[in-house]
Structure formats: structure tokens, C-alpha cells
Design goal:
51% of the residues are buried. The radius of gyration is 26 Å and the shape is globular. It is α+β, with helices and mostly antiparallel strands. The strands form five sheets. Strands 16, 17, 18, 19, 20, 22, 23, 25, 26 and 29 form a ten-stranded antiparallel β-sheet that branches. Strands 15-14-21-28-27-24 form a six-stranded antiparallel β-sheet, with no helix packed on it. Helix 5 crosses helix 6.
Length: 617
């Protein structure tokens, strides 16, 4: 039987982000203002009531500020005894008079502090929690937790087993829609629970040796199309994300999109062995009495109560299991194994389009396949490198915690470019008599299935609906299949010609990957990258110098790029002896590189290529 798991998390954030300015009505800042603390606690009580009256268990993540409030502590204890709520500890909500006086800073993002300060803050907060409750928490979290922070917490407080560890696609897209003022940059992580590696929080552990010791959950469950295409803060299963996105009827105050989004998460059980997950993580700042997101308090309250009521209805119908964070960590470790991927075949439920994408995440990669672009790979993160990426003051990355991409259509154009140059994408071109059609122009739909070999290893398969490609004098019906082999770091792509209007004709297929590396829209220095096409001892090599050079080897065993800056080797391979492997260097206006294979194909033929990721030492 399919299982849909909910983590509902509240935090009594006594000084909610943004709220002091609203509550203070333009007065001089005072984060100890009594009206602010009183209202924050009242909202927390309201949120707790909405959950409990619908029979839902809550994980109460106590903030540092709330640990100094006797009423907040007493409430947590009472609700733990009465409703089975878990008392946990959040590393959000640090700002309060006591924190500012001790650390003399307005910083509040734990991952941005120096490592020395991270350790001191963790010790402060965990020991204060122990002082108030007599035990240490089993769950913690923040918007993001870097690997070094997680490793320290697990070493010092080994009872911690679960943590909120990243926001899905909380990167430049969110930054821009916050008027370039929200410096939380952590694109490139999983959208669903995972076991983070000791080396990098975003990259799932491949085995016990890499296991950080915690189960990580995302900060909110996001719409896997709308959030990727736009600002994720507007498209999540937190009801007031939906209000911020203005996705509701202003006359009736109804929001069917919220329920559709929750239901689409339920649907992910089809692709993940009967398991699906959803979370809602809420602080009181969302329900300020002054109103938020152009919505009055009454609508903020209604949306939250309606959201809890929908989860409660699903639970009563036996369609949902509510767990605390620590309960979920135990469940997840029993349910999933290290190399088992998370899969999501996702369709647009907001804009009325037929758009469909497939997301795949395992310890070796995160990939997105876009069926509106013929099954092209439009986002690719090389987790195989397990890139050590230290974050915070005193490191190379004070704010940018994103996992670097090789392909990213939003920051590196994808197929559709406005002028010269190329964008990053993994696709194919079909050529006949001087005409060329890129499969990115051929919209299609995908169907998900699984294949198991004799050893029990499972491959996830995307079978795309065939597309018709029309040339002058020839029509080609072509089908694509994409195979994600568990535990391999490889994607196999097969193109099969099902039918041609002239069965004696031949077409050239050009399987290509345009890539680079980075975490934002801005180009990185590509010097140091080595491109190689090799067949046995025959090798063509290009050391990247922006000179627009290319080279080819007939029957190449491999075409590859080594990118030292992100310790990654990416390659393409093919088994056909008559396929020409080629490499291409970019130039300053188009700082990419291209790997590819070209082959002549006849009717009913199949051509397979592999995209492979590994760590480059």
C-alpha cells in the first residue's frame, strides 16, 4: 500500500524575520518589544491549535529566542505530553537580545558564520535547550546546513538524527525576486528527503562511509516546475507560499492549486516504490496581524487552517501518515537504501500548459529532463564529485552554498538563445540533405517504468512518445528512451528510428552535450578544463583557451571533459564503431564546451550513447 508521509513543523520564533519592522510601526528597532513577543507566541498557539484539532502531530522546533521564554517552553512540554509532539531545536530564530549582546552581530543564518562561531553557537543553543528541557533534541534544522556544521553537530550531539537542511532551488531566482536582497543561495540540492554525505550536504551519501549520520529533509515541498522556472517562495505546500504567489481567488478566498500541489506529491509514490513525502515548516512571521503578501490576517489564518484541515482529512481517510521528524528519520532509514534514487515525473498544474519534466536524484547526480524540449537534459549536477564546498565567513563562499551545475537552462540559456553562441543542454540533432532539426524543438510526453536485471539492480526508464520530424522530401518518426541505472552515475539515451517515409534513406544523428560549470548566471573561468576524444592510443586533446577549436576521432571510445574547479569528469561514450566522437571548445562570448557523437542511421536502427559522471582527482 502506498504511504504518504507528512512532517508538520512549527517554530515559536519569538522575533520572526521581517516582523519587527511591521509590529514597530516605524519606531526605532527593538527586538525585545513586548508587542512583538506576545503576538509571535499567540500566532504559534494558533498554528498549534490548527494542527491538533485536525489530529496532526507537530515537531516543535524551539528557537534560541524561545528558550528564554517560559511560556513557550511550558507550551512545548504540554503539547509533547498531550499530543505526542516532538520537541526539537531550530537553528533559525537566533536573533534576540541575548544573542545580539553576546555575538554583536545581526547575522542570523547559521551557515554564514565562521566555523569557529558556528561551533560556539551550536554549543550555546544545544546547552540552553538541555537546560530548559533536561534532554538534547533528536532533530534540528535551518534553511541550509553545510556539511561542516552537520558533521560538528553529529560529533558533539550524536542523538541528532534528522535535520531540515536545504531549500529546494533557493538560489539566484529567489534572490532576484527579493529585490537582490535575500542572500540565501543554495540551488542544486534534492527536493525530497535524503541522507547527506559528510563531504557536501546537497550530495546524497553513496554508502555508510559517506553517511553524515542524519536524515535530511527539505525546507518546504515545492512545485517542481513552477519553482524551477520562477521564484520558489511562491510555489510550495506551505499555504502562505501560495498566497505570496497570488494563486487564489480574491473573491472567494479559495486556492485549489494548494490541494493540487499536495496531491501531486501524493502521486510521487508511483515512482518511488510506494513512498511519497510532504512537509510544511512554519514560523509565526507568516501570520502577522498586520497582514502579509497583500493578504489580510483573516485570509492568512483561513489558508493555514484550510491547509491543516486537508492534511487532517487525508489522515482520517487513511491516505496520510503524520510523523515527527525523529520518527520519520527512523522510517526513512528502514524504507530507503543509499543508492536508491528519488524520482518525480511532474506535470504543470498551475499555468494550464502540457509541460512535463522528470527529476532524478541519487548519490551521483541530480538531473532534470524536459519533455517540452524533446527529452533534453536541462539541469545536471555532478554529485559524483562530492565536492567539498565550505560556506561562511572565512571561506571562499560566504553566501553561495549552491552545488555547481554542468547544465542549467535558466542560468546558461538552454537550447533557446537569442543570438550567437550556445546554451547548456544535452540533446540531439537530426540532419538530412543539409537540413537540421534539434529534438529540443519536438515536444513530447514521457512514461515511467522500471527494469530489474538478474542481480536485482533496478534501472528507471523514461519512454518518450515518438516524434515526427519533417524534412524536405523525408519524414522520420523517432523515439527516445532514457535509462537511469541505479548506482552507476550514468544515463543511457537510445534513439530509435521507427519509420521513414523513404525506407532507403539515411539521416545523421548528432548526440551532443553543451556544458560549462557554475552556480549563478555569471561565467566562470574555463581555462584549466581539458577536452579529450580518445580511441585506444589515438587521442585528440584541447586545453581550454577560448579559441573555438574542435577535434574528432572516428569510433571514439570516449569524449570527455575534466573540470578541475569542480573536481568533475564528464564523458560521453557510444558502442557503435562507425560513430564519430568529437569535442569542441567555446569562445569568450559563448564560454561552453561541447562533447558529442555523430552517426548515420537507417530505418529501424537504434543508436545508444551514455552520459557518465565521476570524480576527477
Amino acid at each position: 500500500m502506498d504511504q504518504f508521509v507528512l512532517n508538520l513543523i512549527h517554530r515559536p520564533e519569538m522575533v520572526p524575520e521581517y516582523a519587527e519592522k511591521v509590529t514597530g510601526h516605524g519606531k526605532t528597532e527593538d527586538i525585545g518589544r513586548k508587542a512583538l513577543l506576545t503576538e509571535s507566541l499567540d500566532i504559534f498557539k494558533t498554528q498549534q491549535e490548527a494542527a491538533h484539532k485536525n489530529g496532526l502531530k507537530v515537531t516543535i522546533q524551539m528557537t534560541y529566542a524561545s528558550l528564554f521564554n517560559d511560556e513557550a517552553v511550558a507550551l512545548a512540554k504540554e503539547h509533547h505530553e498531550k499530543y505526542g509532539d516532538e520537541i526539537a531545536l531550530s537553528l533559525l530564530g537566533l536573533p534576540c537580545k541575548e544573542f545580539r549582546e553576546k555575538y554583536n552581530t545581526k547575522d542570523f543564518c547559521i551557515w554564514m558564520f565562521s566555523m569557529e562561531d558556528k561551533k560556539e553557537i551550536v554549543n550555546d543553543v544545544f546547552e540552553k535547550f538541555h537546560e530548559r528541557f533536561g534532554f538534547y533534541p533528536e532533530s534540528t534544522g535551518s534553511y541550509y546546513m553545510d556539511a561542516e556544521l552537520t558533521n560538528y553537530i553529529k560529533e558533539k550531539y550524536p542523538m541528532v538524527k534528522c535535520a531540515v537542511a536545504t531549500c529546494w532551488e533557493e538560489g539566484p531566482k529567489a534572490y532576484h525576486t527579493c529585490n537582490n536582497s535575500w542572500y540565501t543561495l543554495f540551488d542544486g540540492g534534492p527536493w525530497a528527503p535524503w541522507i547527506p554525505s559528510k563531504q557536501n550536504t546537497h550530495a546524497p551519501a553513496a554508502n555508510e562511509a559517506e553517511d553524515s549520520g542524519i536524515v535530511a529533509i527539505p525546507h518546504l515541498s515545492r512545485d517542481l516546475i513552477a519553482c524551477y522556472d520562477g521564484n520558489g517562495s511562491n510555489f510550495g505546500t506551505h499555504p502562505q507560499n501560495v498566497l505570496r504567489g497570488m494563486i487564489y481567488d480574491s473573491k472567494t478566498w479559495e486556492y485549489p492549486y494548494l490541494y493540487n500541489l499536495i496531491d501531486q506529491y501524493r502521486d510521487l509514490a508511483k515512482y518511488n516504490n510506494g513512498y511519497a513525502y510532504n512537509m510544511m515548516f512554519v514560523g509565526p512571521g507568516w501570520m502577522n496581524k498586520m497582514g502579509r503578501w497583500e493578504a489580510p490576517y483573516e485570509l492568512l489564518l483561513k489558508s493555514y487552517e484550510d491547509g491543516c484541515a486537508y492534511y487532517g482529512k487525508l489522515k482520517k481517510e487513511g491516505k496520510l501518515v503524520d510523523m515527527t521528524m525523529s520518527e520519520f528519520a527512523d522510517y526513512y532509514r528502514e524504507k530507503k537504501h543509499y543508492t536508491e534514487p528519488e524520482c518525480a515525473l511532474w506535470r504543470d498544474i498551475l499555468y494550464g500548459s502540457d509541460k512535463q519534466v522528470f527529476w532524478y536524484c541519487d548519490p551521483y547526480m541530480r538531473a532534470c529532463v524536459n519533455m517540452d524540449q524533446g527529452g533534453a537534459i536541462v539541469d545536471l549536477r555532478p554529485y559524483a564529485a562530492k565536492l567539498k564546498w565550505e560556506v561562511g565567513i572565512g571561506t571562499k563562499h560566504v553566501q553561495d552554498a549552491s552545488y555547481p551545475f554542468l547544465i542549467q537552462e535558466k542560468y546558461r540559456a538552454g537550447y533557446f538563445t537569442h543570438y550567437a553562441g550556445e546554451g547548456t543542454v544535452r540533446s540531439a540533432k537530426v540532419c538530412y540533405n543539409g537540413e537540421e532539426v534539434d529534438l529540443c524543438l519536438c515536444r513530447t510526453k514521457a512514461h515511467f517504468s522500471e527494469e530489474k536485471d538478474a542481480s536485482g539492480k533496478v534501472t528507471r526508464v523514461l519512454t518518450l512518445d515518438p516524434v515526427d520530424i519533417e524534412f524536405d522530401g523525408l519524414t522520420v518518426k523517432l523515439q527516445t528512451k532514457e535509462y537511469f541505472e541505479e548506482g552507476s552515475g550514468n544515463i543511457r539515451i537510445e534513439r530509435e528510428i521507427l519509420e521513414m517515409s523513404d525506407p532507403t534513406a539515411k539521416v545523421e544523428i548528432n548526440e551532443y552535450m553543451v556544458a560549462c560549470y557554475g552556480t549563478t548566471e555569471y561565467p566562470e573561468d574555463m581555462t584549466g578544463i581539458t577536452l579529450k576524444a580518445a580511441k585506444g592510443s589515438e587521442t585528440e586533446t584541447i586545453s581550454y583557451e577560448y579559441k573555438c577549436r574542435e577535434a574528432a576521432v572516428m569510433g571514439a571510445d570516449e569524449v570527455s571533459a575534466v573540470i578541475p574547479a569542480i573536481e568533475t569528469k564528464v564523458s560521453m561514450t557510444a558502442t557503435a564503431a562507425d560513430a564519430e566522437g568529437y569535442i569542441r571548445e567555446g569562445y569568450a562570448f559563448s564560454p561552453m564546451f561541447t562533447l558529442g557523437y555523430k552517426k548515420m542511421m537507417a530505418d529501424k536502427e537504434v543508436f545508444a550513447t551514455w552520459l557518465n559522471l565521476e570524480k576527477a582527482n
